[in-house]
Structure formats: structure tokens, C-alpha cells
Amino acid sequence: MLDARRAGAATLAVGGLGADSHSVGLVVLKRALLAAKFEIHDMGIQNDFERFAAAAAHCDAVLVSNMDGHAGHYLRDVEGLPGSCLWYLGGHPTIDGNTEALERLGFTRVYADFVEAEEVVAALRQDLAGRPLKRRGVVSLPSRRAEPLIQGRDAVLGQWPTGEAARDIQENAAVLADRPSLAELHGAAPRPLLHPRSGVVGRGNQQRLFSELHAAGADVLSFQVDSLTRDGRYAAAERAMTDRGDLNGFPVVNHGVETLRRISAECPVPLQTRHSARDPRLLAELSYAGGVTAFEGGAICYNIPYYAELPLSVSIDRWRYVDRLTGRYAELGVVLDREFFGTLTATLLPPCVAITTNLLEGMLAVEAGVRSVSLAYAEQGCRAQDIAAVRVMGVLGRELLGGGGQVRVATVFHQYMGAFPRHPDDAEELIRMSAQTAALANADRIVVKTACEATRIPAVGDNAQALALAAWGVDHADRSAYVPDAAEAARIEASVRALLQAVLSLCPGDLAACVEQAFARGYLDVPFSPSSFNAGRMVSARDLTGAVRILDPGDMPLPPDVTAFETERLNERLAVAGVRRSEAWRLVADDVLRTNRQRTAWPLDLPSYGRAAG
């Protein structure tokens, strides 16, 4: 075994591979490695292999993370791993779970599923034992891919051959007018709409998937776009389709308008495109032209949680194009819905951050002519807090975005998006109870998870089961008996208003500049974000009820009484856990992984959570 001091001399390069945007697990792993006295070269996310190869010359071990299942695509031209260092691969590197081809490249260890950070630390110590360690020096890496300069509609449509078919907006509007409208359905539904995630490679399979999910009770369906398309790697997506390879979603751009129209014409419920694309413009053009009446994403929510080096100014400009396009269809009588992924990194996210970013995204969209917005919130697990947050978000959304009834405002509740329970009974309970929370919060729509979330890609049957569980939860939500936490709602609303006031005062009259400056100064700060444009100083953790509280606000201008309250609640948790404030990150790591590591009742604000937290 390698002793602690020797381990401290070992230098590790740690980062994410390819278009994969997952960052939360990497943050937790790096915390554990630093605590174990390793030297860390943090490469961030979305690295091409050449960057890892360059790091290998200076490091004792290279730890590669890939969660989107496409490691084979990103390493397809690699014949062998360079350097004399150790190579680890972890996350969810393959869609089908077969890692043999990756192991043949020479990885010392390949983790195909969830692994505890402590297990990785122990493996490194064992594998490094007796090996000469390299001197730590300056690690020079190849530059990341430059952002392409694409200006004007001709250039946007010209990014891929399918773009030209989207050119005629009048024709597209006529197609859209015949398709089910999510904007209209939000206001007419007597209960929260049920919305499963869905995306497969081929047209026929996607059509069958939509048909079966609708039969199982889905009120809204969506094209879940693959990660190669999200990163603008259309040629790579085409190659995967040609090779009959797996993709983790539906490659909208490669399929094009004709295919989308054929699918949307057969679908009796509204369709949405969900993606997290770094450049959404071509995707939006094709989606709308293909009969998709709702488009998700925004300049903040699809940048700060997903990309390492994408400037906010670039992101805002690209999304302004999408919103103006959406507004152009509204002028033609077709109101399309724009949903904002207020879930952000979805992990230990203070409600005030989620709501404030939603509202700012909404303001940018409405300013550009959008007439239907959906504000999304990711369940954190404390029912009292989640209900207060969604209700406050709805009230403020209608107040600040509604324009006296000119803009439709809906709220979307994402079932828990953190590390999901591995035990089937716990996962099913989460889906049922989560749907109850959404109904009690008066959410307009629920994005439904599946019970196999922690172990594999869901099949149609898994989604059908999840829809039934969610429907049960909605039907068994007793609104008449629930007493909302008025004090929690007041704290959330006060925090949101304080943040908005601070942000909007930075550059009066220029909303885009206000957003840029807010992140530059840390007035807005998203936990676990991989973005270099996010301050990363705010730290959050759970209190004894499971509610997310702010441990360190960084530079976020929150009301002093709210900060004092949250500090008090977290001091209680630290005392019960016997953890010093200087080591509070241990609680954060535990909070991130608790529902996956051990059996936990749902929601978290049950008596059992407080006892477990100690």
C-alpha cells in the first residue's frame, strides 16, 4: 500500500470526456482526492482525448469521466493509451454496459457504473504503490475547440444539409397550426400534465415509442436529443447512425424536417424538443419546421450547468435568435412554448437561485416576443420547501412575465434529478410521492423519472410503469388537507426579489448585460457548475429536514435575516453530524449521494431524515 505522504506526491489529471456535460460527480470525486492528499490537475469537462493525452506526460494517473455512454465514439480513433501513467475510466461510458473494447485500449481500471469515491482513492493507492512518481510541473494542454462564428439565418440553416428545408416560415407556421399546442394545453388541463423523457436513434423506433408512451398515459412527449447533436457534432452523429451505433437520444438535426413532420403528424399530444445544445439555433429552426410546438432551454440554464468555456455573451446572442424566431411564429398566430431548465445542475440547488434564473430567462424571452413560457424547478426532496418554491415561482412568474395576460406562464416540476435510489421499492416510492408534491405545489406539468434511473437506460415498460406511479401520486394528493409553509415561502420570495433587484441594477435597461455582470460578480452562483464564468463560491447543503440551505453565500446579495436563518439551520446539522464547519464539504458529498448509497424514505422531511443526518 502507498502511504499517505507518498500518495500526496502523486499528480492526477481529472476531467470529463467529449460532449458529456456531467460535472457533479467529478466535483465530489475531486473533493475526495484532495482530502486524500493527491495533487489534482482539474481539466474540467468536455475535453477531447488529445487533451488527456497531453496531460498524461506530466501526471501519474489520468482519470477520465464519461456519463453520456459515448466513450466509444470519442475514443474511436485511439489505438492505445499513451504515456507511462495509470489510466482510469468511469461514469457510464457505454450505453449497453459492454466495456470490453474500452478495456482493450489499456485502461488500468474501467468502472461501468456508480462507484464510491473512497473506492477510487483506495484503488489509486494500491495501483501507485511502488511506482516512481513524476515531478509536478506545468501541464500544457491543446486548446479547446474554438466557437464557430455563425451569423445570420443563412449561416444557421447552412450548418447541416437538412437546414434548408426549414427556410419557409409561412409554410412551417401552417404545419404548426395543425399540431397539438403545449401552450394551450397548459391552461386547459385539470391536473398536472405527465411528461416522460424519451429519445431513441431511429424514426420508426421513435414513432413506436411515442405511440406506446401516449397509450401509457403521457400528456406531453419530447424528442430527447443525443449528446453529439447537443455539442454540434452532426457529422459524428451521422457516422453513428450509418454504423448503426447507439446514441443516447434522437438526432433531430440529422433526421431533418420531413422526418419530424411525419412523426409529429401521427402524435396526438404536444411535442417538445429537449436538448442542452451549446448552439440551439439550427435545432430550433428544424424543430419548429417539423411540427414541434415547444422548445426547451435558455442562455443561462443551457450554458452555466453544461459548458466549461462558453461565454454568456455568446450564449445570450444564440438564444436571442431562438426567442425572436419563436416570437415571429407568434406574430403569425402560432404560440409556441419556451421552457427554461431552471433545474440547472439539479443538485443541492437553493430555490432562490432556480427561481431567479428562470425569471431572468423569461424576461429575455418575453423581450424578444415569446408569448408562452414554462418555468421549471427540480425537486430537491424536502416537500415543504419544494412546494413553497414552485408556488412562489408561479406567483412571481405571472407577476413579472405575464404582461397582464399577454404571456402564458406555466410551472414545471422535475422529479428528483440527483443520485436516484437503487432499490426498486425506494425508487417507486420516490416517483409516487414526488408526484404528490408536484400536485400539492399546483405545478402545471411533471417531468417523470423511471424506477430504473440508477441502474440502466429505461425501456418503454419502465416509462409506462413510471407514468402509472406518477398518476397514482397525483390522484392521491390531498390538497384540502395540506398546510403550506408560509414562512418558507416568504423567505424564498424575499431572496428572489433581493437577487433580482441586485441583478437588474447592474446595467439598467440592458438585461443581457445585467445577466453577464451578475455571474461575473457572483451575484448569481450555481453549485457544481463546470462553467468558468460561474463564480463557484456559493456552497449549499441540507439541514436536518432535508431542505437545501446556503452554507456560504459567496457574493450573492441575500437578505441578512434569511442568511442568518439558514446559517442557524446548518449549524444544527453540523453539530448533530459532529463535523467542523471547515470540513462541511463532507456533508455536501453525503447529501449528493445519500439516496443512492442507502435506503432513504421520500420525501426527506420525514422524521427519519433528521436521525439519519446525524
Characterization of this structure:
The protein has 614 residues and is of the alpha/beta class. 44% of the residues lie in helices and 12% in strands. It has 24 helices and 15 strands. The strands form 3 sheets. It has an 8-stranded parallel sheet with strand order 6-13-12-11-10-9-8-7. Strands 2-1-3-4-5 form a 5-stranded parallel sheet, sandwiched between helices. A two-stranded antiparallel sheet has the order 14-15. Strand 14 (539-542) and strand 15 form a beta hairpin. It is globular. 53% of the residues are buried.
Features:
5-stranded parallel β-sheet; globular; disordered N terminus; about 625 residues
Task: Please describe the topology of this protein.
Elements: H1 4-9, E1 11-17, H2 24-35, E2 39-47, H3 49-56, E3 61-66, H4 71-74, E4 86-91, H5 100-103, E5 109-110, H6 117-128, H7 153-157, H8 169-177, H9 182-188, E6 193-196, H10 203-215, E7 221-224, H11 227-230, H12 234-242, H13 252-265, E8 271-274, H14 281-289, E9 294-296, H15 312-331, E10 337-340, H16 351-367, E11 372-378, H17 383-401, E12 408-414, H18 424-440, E13 445-448, H19 460-475, H20 486-504, H21 511-521, E14 539-542, E15 548-552, H22 560-577, H23 585-597, H24 607-613
Parallel strand pairs: 1-2, 1-3, 3-4, 4-5, 6-13, 7-8, 8-9, 9-10, 10-11, 11-12, 12-13
Antiparallel strand pairs: 14-15
